[in-house]
Amino acid sequence: MEELKSKLKDLITSGKIDKAIKQLVSMDLDSSKKDKVAAIASRYNRYKEEKNQGTLTYEQATVTENQIVASLIEVVNNLDKKEIKITGGGGLPLKPILLSLAGVIIIALILFQSGVFSKSGSDNLQLTVFVQDEAGNPVLENEGKLNIPLGNRALNSLIGPNGRTNFADITGDNVGDSIVIGLEAEGWEIVDGKNAFVFDGEPIKLTVMKDESLGIVKGVVKSRDGQEFIQGASVTIGADTVITTNASGVFNTTLPSHMRVTAESTPYNLTISAPGYKTTTQYYYPGQSTEIRLNKN
Protein backbone atom coordinates (compact mmCIF):
# COMPACT_ATOMS: atom_id res chain seq x y z
CA MET A 1 0.00 0.00 0.00
CA GLU A 2 2.66 2.52 1.04
CA GLU A 3 4.93 1.40 -1.79
CA LEU A 4 2.17 2.11 -4.32
CA LYS A 5 1.47 5.52 -2.82
CA SER A 6 5.17 6.30 -3.03
CA LYS A 7 5.27 5.35 -6.73
CA LEU A 8 2.25 7.51 -7.47
CA LYS A 9 3.82 10.46 -5.65
CA ASP A 10 7.04 9.98 -7.60
CA LEU A 11 5.07 10.20 -10.87
CA ILE A 12 3.34 13.38 -9.71
CA THR A 13 6.38 15.19 -8.36
CA SER A 14 8.52 14.26 -11.40
CA GLY A 15 6.06 15.99 -13.72
CA LYS A 16 4.38 12.81 -15.05
CA ILE A 17 0.95 14.06 -14.08
CA ASP A 18 -0.79 12.42 -17.05
CA LYS A 19 0.42 8.98 -15.98
CA ALA A 20 -0.52 9.56 -12.35
CA ILE A 21 -4.08 10.53 -13.33
CA LYS A 22 -4.42 7.44 -15.54
CA GLN A 23 -3.28 5.21 -12.67
CA LEU A 24 -5.77 6.81 -10.29
CA VAL A 25 -8.58 6.32 -12.81
CA SER A 26 -7.75 2.61 -13.09
CA MET A 27 -8.41 2.14 -9.38
CA ASP A 28 -11.72 1.29 -7.70
CA LEU A 29 -12.12 4.70 -6.08
CA ASP A 30 -15.19 5.75 -4.17
CA SER A 31 -17.50 8.22 -5.88
CA SER A 32 -16.10 11.31 -4.15
CA LYS A 33 -12.53 10.45 -5.16
CA LYS A 34 -13.64 9.66 -8.72
CA ASP A 35 -15.25 13.09 -8.95
CA LYS A 36 -12.15 14.77 -7.54
CA VAL A 37 -9.81 13.00 -9.99
CA ALA A 38 -12.10 13.94 -12.89
CA ALA A 39 -12.11 17.57 -11.72
CA ILE A 40 -8.32 17.59 -11.44
CA ALA A 41 -8.03 16.12 -14.95
CA SER A 42 -10.31 18.82 -16.33
CA ARG A 43 -8.35 21.56 -14.58
CA TYR A 44 -5.07 20.07 -15.82
CA ASN A 45 -6.40 20.21 -19.38
CA ARG A 46 -7.32 23.90 -19.06
CA TYR A 47 -3.90 24.60 -17.56
CA LYS A 48 -2.07 22.93 -20.47
CA GLU A 49 -4.15 24.76 -23.06
CA GLU A 50 -3.63 28.17 -21.43
CA LYS A 51 0.09 27.47 -21.03
CA ASN A 52 0.46 26.49 -24.70
CA GLN A 53 -1.45 29.60 -25.76
CA GLY A 54 0.86 31.78 -23.69
CA THR A 55 -2.01 33.33 -21.69
CA LEU A 56 -0.40 32.44 -18.36
CA THR A 57 2.54 34.28 -16.90
CA TYR A 58 5.41 32.18 -15.57
CA GLU A 59 4.26 32.85 -12.01
CA GLN A 60 0.63 31.90 -12.78
CA ALA A 61 1.71 28.68 -14.48
CA THR A 62 3.90 27.75 -11.50
CA VAL A 63 1.13 28.40 -8.97
CA THR A 64 -1.47 26.45 -10.97
CA GLU A 65 0.80 23.44 -11.48
CA ASN A 66 1.71 23.41 -7.78
CA GLN A 67 -2.01 23.46 -6.87
CA ILE A 68 -2.71 20.52 -9.21
CA VAL A 69 0.21 18.58 -7.75
CA ALA A 70 -1.01 19.28 -4.21
CA SER A 71 -4.54 18.08 -5.08
CA LEU A 72 -3.23 14.83 -6.54
CA ILE A 73 -0.96 14.21 -3.55
CA GLU A 74 -3.99 14.69 -1.29
CA VAL A 75 -5.94 12.06 -3.23
CA VAL A 76 -3.03 9.62 -3.00
CA ASN A 77 -2.60 10.19 0.74
CA ASN A 78 -6.29 9.39 1.29
CA LEU A 79 -6.30 6.11 -0.65
CA ASP A 80 -7.72 3.10 1.22
CA LYS A 81 -6.51 -0.49 0.95
CA LYS A 82 -9.87 -1.58 -0.46
CA GLU A 83 -9.35 0.77 -3.40
CA ILE A 84 -6.19 -1.11 -4.47
CA LYS A 85 -7.27 -4.66 -5.17
CA ILE A 86 -5.20 -5.79 -8.16
CA THR A 87 -1.74 -4.77 -9.28
CA GLY A 88 0.05 -5.44 -12.55
CA GLY A 89 3.61 -5.10 -13.80
CA GLY A 90 5.75 -2.82 -11.70
CA GLY A 91 3.22 -2.88 -8.85
CA LEU A 92 0.87 -0.36 -10.49
CA PRO A 93 -2.90 -0.99 -10.22
CA LEU A 94 -5.09 -2.59 -12.90
CA LYS A 95 -8.76 -1.85 -13.51
CA PRO A 96 -10.91 -3.75 -10.99
CA ILE A 97 -13.80 -5.67 -12.54
CA LEU A 98 -16.20 -4.15 -10.01
CA LEU A 99 -15.88 -0.73 -11.61
CA SER A 100 -18.97 -0.33 -13.75
CA LEU A 101 -18.70 -0.04 -17.51
CA ALA A 102 -20.68 3.18 -17.40
CA GLY A 103 -18.16 4.65 -15.00
CA VAL A 104 -15.28 3.66 -17.27
CA ILE A 105 -16.89 5.34 -20.28
CA ILE A 106 -17.67 8.56 -18.40
CA ILE A 107 -14.15 8.90 -17.00
CA ALA A 108 -12.58 8.01 -20.35
CA LEU A 109 -14.61 10.74 -22.06
CA ILE A 110 -13.54 13.27 -19.45
CA LEU A 111 -9.90 12.32 -19.85
CA PHE A 112 -10.09 12.44 -23.64
CA GLN A 113 -11.58 15.93 -23.51
CA SER A 114 -8.97 16.88 -20.91
CA GLY A 115 -6.15 15.88 -23.20
CA VAL A 116 -4.72 13.41 -20.67
CA PHE A 117 -4.62 10.70 -23.31
CA SER A 118 -1.92 11.42 -25.88
CA LYS A 119 -2.81 13.47 -28.97
CA SER A 120 -1.73 12.84 -32.53
CA GLY A 121 1.19 14.72 -34.01
CA SER A 122 -1.15 16.69 -36.28
CA ASP A 123 -2.80 18.59 -33.40
CA ASN A 124 -2.08 22.31 -33.45
CA LEU A 125 0.14 23.73 -30.77
CA GLN A 126 1.50 27.21 -30.22
CA LEU A 127 5.04 28.46 -29.89
CA THR A 128 5.28 31.29 -27.37
CA VAL A 129 8.43 33.38 -27.01
CA PHE A 130 8.94 35.84 -24.15
CA VAL A 131 11.55 38.53 -24.90
CA GLN A 132 13.27 39.77 -21.76
CA ASP A 133 16.35 41.69 -20.65
CA GLU A 134 19.09 40.22 -18.49
CA ALA A 135 17.12 41.11 -15.34
CA GLY A 136 14.10 39.16 -16.57
CA ASN A 137 12.00 42.22 -17.42
CA PRO A 138 9.89 42.23 -20.61
CA VAL A 139 11.31 44.49 -23.33
CA LEU A 140 10.69 45.54 -26.94
CA GLU A 141 6.92 45.51 -26.48
CA ASN A 142 5.35 46.43 -29.84
CA GLU A 143 8.80 47.54 -31.07
CA GLY A 144 10.81 44.58 -32.33
CA LYS A 145 10.15 41.59 -34.54
CA LEU A 146 10.98 37.88 -34.32
CA ASN A 147 11.48 35.52 -37.23
CA ILE A 148 11.85 31.74 -37.12
CA PRO A 149 12.57 29.40 -40.04
CA LEU A 150 10.61 26.20 -39.41
CA GLY A 151 10.80 23.49 -42.03
CA ASN A 152 9.81 25.06 -45.33
CA ARG A 153 8.06 27.95 -43.58
CA ALA A 154 9.24 31.32 -42.31
CA LEU A 155 7.41 32.51 -39.19
CA ASN A 156 7.42 36.26 -38.55
CA SER A 157 5.66 38.27 -35.88
CA LEU A 158 5.90 41.55 -33.99
CA ILE A 159 6.79 41.36 -30.31
CA GLY A 160 3.60 41.97 -28.38
CA PRO A 161 2.63 43.25 -24.92
CA ASN A 162 4.72 41.93 -22.03
CA GLY A 163 7.39 40.96 -24.55
CA ARG A 164 5.30 37.98 -25.68
CA THR A 165 5.08 36.69 -29.23
CA ASN A 166 2.79 33.83 -30.22
CA PHE A 167 3.30 31.66 -33.29
CA ALA A 168 0.21 29.59 -34.08
CA ASP A 169 -0.26 26.52 -36.31
CA ILE A 170 2.66 24.62 -34.83
CA THR A 171 1.94 20.89 -34.90
CA GLY A 172 2.88 18.08 -32.57
CA ASP A 173 5.25 16.89 -35.29
CA ASN A 174 7.43 19.91 -34.50
CA VAL A 175 8.02 18.82 -30.91
CA GLY A 176 11.71 18.03 -30.56
CA ASP A 177 12.69 20.22 -33.52
CA SER A 178 15.58 22.66 -33.20
CA ILE A 179 14.54 26.25 -33.83
CA VAL A 180 16.64 29.36 -34.33
CA ILE A 181 15.10 32.72 -33.41
CA GLY A 182 16.10 35.86 -35.29
CA LEU A 183 15.66 39.33 -33.76
CA GLU A 184 14.95 42.55 -35.64
CA ALA A 185 15.15 45.50 -33.23
CA GLU A 186 17.22 48.65 -33.56
CA GLY A 187 19.95 48.82 -30.96
CA TRP A 188 19.30 45.36 -29.48
CA GLU A 189 20.99 41.98 -29.77
CA ILE A 190 20.54 38.49 -28.35
CA VAL A 191 22.72 37.89 -25.28
CA ASP A 192 25.73 35.71 -26.14
CA GLY A 193 24.04 34.79 -29.41
CA LYS A 194 21.92 32.20 -27.60
CA ASN A 195 19.05 31.95 -30.07
CA ALA A 196 18.89 28.18 -30.68
CA PHE A 197 16.33 26.12 -28.76
CA VAL A 198 14.60 22.73 -28.87
CA PHE A 199 10.81 23.06 -29.10
CA ASP A 200 9.10 21.02 -26.38
CA GLY A 201 5.76 22.80 -26.31
CA GLU A 202 6.78 25.06 -23.43
CA PRO A 203 7.24 28.86 -23.73
CA ILE A 204 10.74 30.02 -24.65
CA LYS A 205 12.53 32.90 -22.95
CA LEU A 206 14.76 34.91 -25.28
CA THR A 207 17.20 37.16 -23.41
CA VAL A 208 18.33 40.33 -25.19
CA MET A 209 20.45 43.36 -24.42
CA LYS A 210 21.14 46.77 -25.93
CA ASP A 211 24.02 46.75 -28.38
CA GLU A 212 26.46 49.61 -29.01
CA SER A 213 25.36 50.57 -32.52
CA LEU A 214 23.16 53.47 -31.41
CA GLY A 215 25.96 54.89 -29.27
CA ILE A 216 28.68 55.03 -31.93
CA VAL A 217 29.51 58.49 -33.29
CA LYS A 218 32.21 58.66 -35.95
CA GLY A 219 33.35 60.69 -38.94
CA VAL A 220 36.05 62.88 -40.39
CA VAL A 221 36.60 66.66 -40.41
CA LYS A 222 38.08 68.33 -43.50
CA SER A 223 38.57 71.77 -44.99
CA ARG A 224 35.87 73.12 -47.28
CA ASP A 225 37.70 71.96 -50.44
CA GLY A 226 38.32 68.52 -48.92
CA GLN A 227 42.06 68.77 -49.41
CA GLU A 228 43.04 69.08 -45.74
CA PHE A 229 42.27 66.77 -42.83
CA ILE A 230 41.81 68.93 -39.76
CA GLN A 231 43.66 67.63 -36.71
CA GLY A 232 42.65 68.79 -33.21
CA ALA A 233 39.10 69.79 -34.16
CA SER A 234 36.65 69.61 -31.25
CA VAL A 235 33.43 67.66 -31.80
CA THR A 236 30.84 68.30 -29.10
CA ILE A 237 28.01 65.78 -28.88
CA GLY A 238 24.90 67.28 -27.37
CA ALA A 239 25.82 69.66 -24.60
CA ASP A 240 28.79 68.21 -22.78
CA THR A 241 30.64 65.35 -24.51
CA VAL A 242 33.72 66.55 -26.40
CA ILE A 243 36.05 64.45 -28.54
CA THR A 244 39.02 65.53 -30.65
CA THR A 245 40.03 64.53 -34.17
CA ASN A 246 43.32 62.74 -34.77
CA ALA A 247 46.01 63.48 -37.35
CA SER A 248 43.75 62.14 -40.08
CA GLY A 249 40.86 64.34 -38.98
CA VAL A 250 38.97 61.29 -37.72
CA PHE A 251 36.77 61.18 -34.63
CA ASN A 252 35.22 58.00 -33.21
CA THR A 253 33.60 57.32 -29.84
CA THR A 254 31.00 55.09 -28.23
CA LEU A 255 28.64 56.85 -25.84
CA PRO A 256 27.54 55.22 -22.57
CA SER A 257 24.10 53.63 -22.64
CA HIS A 258 22.34 56.43 -20.71
CA MET A 259 23.41 58.99 -23.37
CA ARG A 260 22.38 57.03 -26.44
CA VAL A 261 19.40 57.73 -28.67
CA THR A 262 16.78 54.97 -28.88
CA ALA A 263 16.45 54.67 -32.67
CA GLU A 264 18.48 55.23 -35.82
CA SER A 265 15.97 57.86 -36.90
CA THR A 266 16.84 60.04 -33.89
CA PRO A 267 19.93 62.20 -34.52
CA TYR A 268 22.68 63.53 -32.30
CA ASN A 269 23.45 67.25 -32.45
CA LEU A 270 27.14 67.84 -33.20
CA THR A 271 29.02 71.12 -32.81
CA ILE A 272 32.39 71.18 -34.61
CA SER A 273 35.08 73.82 -34.06
CA ALA A 274 38.77 74.20 -34.90
CA PRO A 275 41.31 77.06 -34.71
CA GLY A 276 41.16 79.16 -37.88
CA TYR A 277 37.79 77.71 -38.93
CA LYS A 278 34.20 78.73 -38.41
CA THR A 279 32.19 76.70 -35.92
CA THR A 280 29.36 74.68 -37.42
CA THR A 281 26.57 72.42 -36.21
CA GLN A 282 25.32 69.28 -37.86
CA TYR A 283 22.95 66.40 -37.20
CA TYR A 284 24.46 62.93 -36.97
CA TYR A 285 22.35 59.77 -37.42
CA PRO A 286 23.61 56.50 -35.86
CA GLY A 287 24.82 53.80 -38.21
CA GLN A 288 26.74 56.08 -40.58
CA SER A 289 30.12 57.74 -40.91
CA THR A 290 29.84 61.42 -41.66
CA GLU A 291 32.19 63.86 -43.41
CA ILE A 292 32.20 67.39 -42.02
CA ARG A 293 33.75 70.29 -43.94
CA LEU A 294 34.64 73.57 -42.26
CA ASN A 295 34.99 77.05 -43.73
CA LYS A 296 38.04 79.10 -42.81
CA ASN A 297 37.52 82.31 -40.86
Structural class: alpha+beta
Number of contiguous helices: 5
Q: Please give the order of strands in the largest beta sheet.
A: 4-1-9-7
| Shape verdict | rod-shaped
Q: Main beta sheet: strand number and arrangement?
A: 4 strands, mixed
The end-to-end span amounts to: 99 Å
Number of domains: 3
The proportion of strand residues reads 25-35%
Poorly predicted residue ranges: 86-100, 115-122
Radius of gyration: 31 Å
Structural write-up:
This protein is of the alpha+beta class and 297 residues long. It has 3 domains: 113 residues, no CATH class; 87 residues, Carboxypeptidase-like, regulatory domain (Immunoglobulin-like, Sandwich); 82 residues, Immunoglobulin-like (Sandwich). Helices cover 26% and strands 29% of the residues. The protein is built from 5 helices and 16 strands. It has a 4-stranded mixed beta sheet with strand order 4-1-9-7, with no helix packed on it. Helix 1 runs antiparallel to helix 2, helix 2 packs antiparallel against helix 3 and helix 3 runs parallel beside helix 5. It is rod-shaped, with a radius of gyration of 31 Å. The protein starts with a helix and ends with a strand.
Quickly list its features.
single chain; 297 residues; alpha+beta; Immunoglobulin-like; 5 helices; 16 strands
Topology record:
Elements: H1 2-13, H2 17-25, H3 31-53, H4 58-77, H5 101-114, E1 124-132, E2 145-150, E3 153-158, E4 164-171, E5 178-180, E6 182-184, E7 188-190, E8 196-198, E9 204-210, E10 216-223, E11 234-237, E12 241-244, E13 250-254, E14 268-273, E15 280-284, E16 290-294
Parallel strand pairs: 1-9, 10-16
Antiparallel strand pairs: 1-4, 2-3, 2-6, 5-8, 7-9, 10-13, 11-12, 11-14, 14-15
